[in-house]
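Input (structure):
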C-alpha cells in the first residue's frame, strides 16, 4: 500500500511541474492517449484474470504489445483518412476497463467475505 501511495504522490508532483522537459506535439497527442489507454486496458485485463495458474509474464507482454499495436494502428489509419476512428478505440478500451474493474471489485468483495 505504501508503494501505491508513494507512486500516486510522485505522479501528482511530476504532473504539477510546468516544464518537466517532456513536450508532446498536438498532432501526436492522440497517439499518446491511445498508448496510455492500451496499457491501462491491458493491465486491468491481466489483473482481473481469475486463474492465477495461467499467469505467464510473456503472455502479459504479448497482450500489452498487441493492444498497443492495434490502438496506434487504428489511430494512424484514422489520422490518414481524416476520420475520428480513434474514438471507437477509446470507447472499446473504456468499456473493457470498466468491465474488468467491476470484475476486480466483485472478486475483492467476495474474497473479503470468505476471509
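Output (sequence):
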Amino acid at each position: 500500500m505504501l508503494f501505491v501511495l508513494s507512486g500516486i504522490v510522485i505522479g501528482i508532483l511530476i504532473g504539477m511541474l510546468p516544464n518537466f522537459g517532456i513536450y508532446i506535439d498536438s498532432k501526436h497527442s492522440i497517439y499518446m492517449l491511445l498508448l496510455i489507454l492500451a496499457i491501462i486496458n491491458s493491465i486491468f485485463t491481466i489483473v482481473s484474470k481469475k486463474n492465477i495458474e495461467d499467469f505467464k509474464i510473456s503472455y502479459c507482454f504479448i497482450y500489452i504489445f498487441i493492444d498497443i499495436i492495434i490502438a496506434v494502428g487504428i489511430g494512424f489509419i484514422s489520422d490518414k483518412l481524416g476520420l475520428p476512428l480513434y474514438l471507437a478505440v477509446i470507447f472499446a478500451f473504456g468499456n473493457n476497463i470498466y468491465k474488468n474493474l467491476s470484475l476486480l471489485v466483485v472478486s475483492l468483495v467476495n474474497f473479503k467475505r470468505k476471509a
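Notes: The first helix runs from residue 2 to 16. The mean pLDDT is 81.
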